[in-house]
Specification:
Length: 423
Amino acid sequence: MFEVIDSLKAKLVLSELPGLKTSSVGVFVNAGARYEDNKVKGIAHFLEHMVFKGSKRYSYRKIKEEIEGRGGILNGFTSQEITGYYSHCLYYNAPRVLDILLDMVLFPVLDSKEIDKERKVILEEIKMHNDLPHVRASSLLDGLLWSNHPLGKEVIGYFETVKNIGRSNLCSFKNQFYSPSNIVIICVSNCKKDRIYRVIREKTKGVSASLAKVHQRHPSCLNRVNIVVEEKDIDQSHLCIGFRSSSARSRERFITEIIHIILGANMSSRLFEEIREKRGLCYDISTEVRRFKDSGSFSIHVGLDSRNIITALDNIFRQLRLIREKEISKKELERAKEYLFGQMLMNVERASGRMFYIADSYLSTGKIYSVEKVKNIVDKIDTLSIREVAEKIFSFDRMCVSCVLRHKDRFEPKIKRFIHNLL
């Protein structure tokens, strides 16, 4: 199913899907926002933008034409620990697409005029994020969950830091992290392996493969309740509740995933049923699990009328107490497991889904778990282990609450009073 090749300067993971007419190719750099200096916060994201603006062999226009003009899709992302560049294309174009992606990543031009133009684009992106209340509420929650730590900072940066990032900063960050030894290439395709090998050898010839110097500061423990309420002229309030949770390398991560499915991952989850279906308090309520190499979070997000916040909080915490104090039924556990396997299988049967599945596993743990391996692990999860991990996660004296709404003066005291009455 997966083949890891270590004999090249950059690590390569190959996966074949017999009969597939499409491919997914990704170049993933072990460099993200958590490794930045505070003075240039947002530089990993800025560099991701600039990589698309032209390389040694391809102009920014040629990059798009060569991939999109051949029926492909091109994109990228920056997270706290990874920067990714990827394309979904027709299977016979995979070597050509990989050549373009590697040229972009290893040899970006970083033209000063383009840097100044792209800075304006990123500043507009920051404005957009700040204007979206659900995004703003999530950002505030991160700041509470990882206070005074890089994981609590904005990946896209801030006005004052992005304005000061120059070409020398971008070159320095690129030289530090964008080495072949710090890159993982993932190719899901039916094209011949030797064509992929040839592209990688050619592109990395003469490029230093020195290891990147990465300083990863572990977050300190969360040991108190943190609450922040922000005023915004909006009709719908956005509320987030967050807890520290298992890391990507924790043995409990699959149990946490099952808890996520039971509580808020789909329309049959407990919170969706209780808050939306039974009481009609919101349009959408969901849970989210985030995993990093040394930390993680479990959060609940809901958008609703401010007048219903306390009622919603009361019912949300009632559900958290239930899963913490009472074992779930075997039937509910089996449904959650089936949902997990179903989503996983549907993902890995698509080229793009399989590529991201491999990336998520390999870059955070150094391992690739087959669906069968995951099934064996998850099959052993019982109702008691669900309760034990839920008890560990949902500690009400170590949680964070963020809310973005109108009439802060009216609702903030009510929210704080409710939360402190739980303790």
